[in-house]
Recover the amino acids of this structure.
């Protein structure tokens, strides 16, 4: 459901490294992914944003050949996922939601194992492992067993394991789940650096709005197995989000609700308290002078006037009818519990 | 399938195993308990002397004892000598069964996915599971054999037992182990939770071991059980091992029994391996 005009798709097709058409996944009667279509451009960070159970992980599983496709088609790095899974596997790296590094092995040994899985010759791996360790700042801890690592160190190691064979596309499934804010920022820096310096295409999923907003060039908002919108974060916000003006005037005096409603471009007025109004605006520039003028003319003193920029949260709410944060605490499967145990 | 991939994967599992030597202790204790405690307390060759022995002349008691040992226990000089083959089978089967827990954990912790997205064949992944458990089980089998030798009044090897007999004993054990290993590995790749694996293993292990001549000679079994014990590969392996450790130098009829047992075990291993590859590959296919 890309918002581009159809003619443009043809023109851009050549630089699409992932192309998905009508991708559907059913488990028995349940439809996990419901006929989604999108493209990912070479060298971009593309993010699938949605609550738990929206179909993000199922989509990643299909694109990385882990799950079969019920209907539709997906091309990854120029190969058909269903017909040529082996070639897809050689071109991609996956950093799964779970932490899969072995506790009993050292960081370096885990990387060496990952390199051998991708058939890198050992002398070449040694060089590559050195590079990866310095990239993720784990040189000092390379000879320590992973069971001594913190959650953030494990995450970084996981990232390096997914990158060891220099894949063309890196798939990240919830790359910062369970991390504290500082560590999350650090992981963001690595991802951004890889994308900027090495031109790596990143396909990621997240249920953190800030993550999608900060990192990605384009976001696909997914809910109940369908893509509800797809665009750059700023375009999504300006297309969807109404801006909110918060106006605080001296408490005594005339009620402004009727006046504010009469101003052009005002979509909604809510009185929050004595003299405190929240005004929804479709266009800020034209409305503000009219509101200020009208308020002053009514001999009311303006104590505060601020514009709240539309957030992805609002966009999400508007598109799906529910807040992303409500659905965060939902799933609690055994595997996830184990993961949390491991990260302690 | 690539042998190199299988080795890389097996190497990872065995490195973890070697670094955690405490993990082998429960299995070793099981061998010690079965041989030292069960083998000494439940000693059927002592039944006569310890019950009506005092009412009979000593030479009659010793005659009855040697008759029981010769007729029922293939001439084993101690019950532990008879039992050792059975305990090896028991320890091997139980550990192969529960060895699958590592495989289920690899799936639950997402590790299996990192293998499945790598350019590694499903068959290589399956065989890495087989080899890791096979190696562990063979180490335990050897340890059980040695524990039997160390125990006082334990395993007494026949005078003709040479290096070749030793190799033959472990060929029989290896064939039995490989067959069960393929089967249990396929089960482990097919189930999603440790609970179901434990359920299946518990359901299989005891019939496999007790419906065989592993612990007790099948000559005293009721007919229906005798028939099951007869075709049970555990009995065949136990029979082969006993021929070698009790008799040492084999007569031509014993030699042909041994050959028959080994061929039977080879066929068992081949069939279960083919079946295991089929089931294992299906379980690893994208769903």
């Amino acid at each position: 459901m890309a918002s581009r005009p159809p003619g443009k798709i043809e023109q851009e097709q050549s630089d699409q490294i992932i192309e998905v058409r009508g991708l559907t996944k059913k488990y028995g009667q349940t439809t996990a992914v419901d006929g989604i279509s999108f493209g990912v451009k070479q060298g971009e960070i593309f993010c699938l944003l949605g609550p738990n159970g929206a179909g993000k992980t199922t989509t990643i599983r299909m694109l990385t050949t882990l799950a079969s496709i019920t209907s539709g088609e997906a091309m990854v790095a120029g190969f058909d996922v269903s017909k040529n899974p082996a070639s897809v596997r050689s071109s991609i790296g996956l950093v799964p939601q779970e932490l899969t590094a072995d506790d009993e092995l050292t960081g370096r040994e885990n990387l060496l194992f990952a390199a051998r899985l991708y058939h890198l010759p050992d002398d070449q791996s040694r060089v590559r492992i050195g590079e990866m360790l310095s990239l993720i700042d784990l040189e000092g801890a390379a000879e320590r067993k992973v069971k001594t690592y913190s959650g953030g160190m494990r995450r970084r190691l996981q990232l390096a394991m997914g990158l060891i064979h220099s894949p063309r596309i890196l798939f990240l499934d919830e790359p910062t789940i369970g991390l504290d804010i500082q560590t999350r920022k650090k992981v963001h820096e690595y991802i951004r650096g890889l994308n900027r310096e090495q031109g790596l295409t990143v396909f990621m999923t997240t249920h953190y709005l800030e993550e999608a907003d900060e990192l990605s060039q384009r976001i696909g908002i997914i809910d109940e197995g369908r893509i509800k919108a797809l665009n750059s974060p700023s375009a999504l916000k300006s297309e969807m989000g109404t801006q909110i003006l918060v106006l605080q005037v001296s408490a005594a005096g005339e009620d402004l609700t009727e006046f504010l409603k009469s101003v052009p471009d005002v979509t909604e007025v809510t009185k929050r308290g004595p003299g405190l109004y929240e005004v929804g605006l479709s266009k800020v520039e034209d409305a503000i002078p009219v509101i200020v003028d009208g308020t002053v003319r009514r001999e009311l003193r303006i104590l505060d006037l601020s514009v709240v920029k539309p957030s992805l949260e609002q966009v999400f709410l508007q598109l799906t009818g529910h807040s992303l944060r409500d659905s965060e605490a939902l799933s609690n499967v055994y595997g996830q519990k184990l993961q949390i145990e491991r990260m302690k | 399938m690539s042998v190199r991939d299988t080795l890389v994967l097996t190497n990872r599992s065995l490195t973890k195993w070697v670094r955690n030597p405490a993990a082998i202790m429960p299995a070793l204790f099981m061998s010690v308990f079965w041989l030292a405690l069960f083998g000494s307390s439940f000693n059927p060759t002592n039944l006569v002397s310890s019950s009506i022995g005092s009412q009979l002349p000593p030479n009659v008691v010793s005659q009855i004892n040697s008759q029981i040992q010769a007729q029922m226990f293939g001439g084993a000089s101690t019950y532990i000598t008879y039992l050792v083959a059975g305990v090896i089978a028991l320890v091997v089967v139980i550990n192969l069964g529960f060895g699958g827990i590592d495989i289920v954990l690899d799936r639950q912790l997402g590790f299996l996915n990192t293998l499945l997205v790598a350019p590694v064949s499903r068959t290589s992944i399956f065989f890495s599971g087989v080899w890791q458990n096979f190696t562990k089980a063979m180490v335990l089998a050897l340890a059980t054999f040695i524990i039997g030798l160390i125990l006082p009044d334990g395993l007494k090897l026949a005078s003709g037992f040479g290096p070749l007999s030793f190799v033959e004993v472990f060929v029989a054990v290896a064939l039995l182990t490989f067959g069960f290993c393929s089967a249990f590995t396929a089960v482990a790749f097919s189930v999603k939770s440790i609970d179901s694996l434990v359920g299946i293993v518990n359901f299989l292990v005891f019939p496999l071991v007790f419906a065989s001549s592993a612990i007790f000679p099948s000559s005293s079994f009721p007919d229906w059980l005798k028939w099951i014990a007869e075709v049970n590969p555990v009995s065949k392996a136990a029979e082969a091992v006993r021929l070698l450790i009790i008799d040492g130098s084999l007569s031509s009829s014993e030699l042909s029994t041994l050959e028959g047992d080994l061929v039977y075990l080879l066929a068992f291993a081949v069939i279960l391996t083919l079946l295991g590859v089929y089931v294992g590959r299906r379980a690893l296919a994208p769903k």
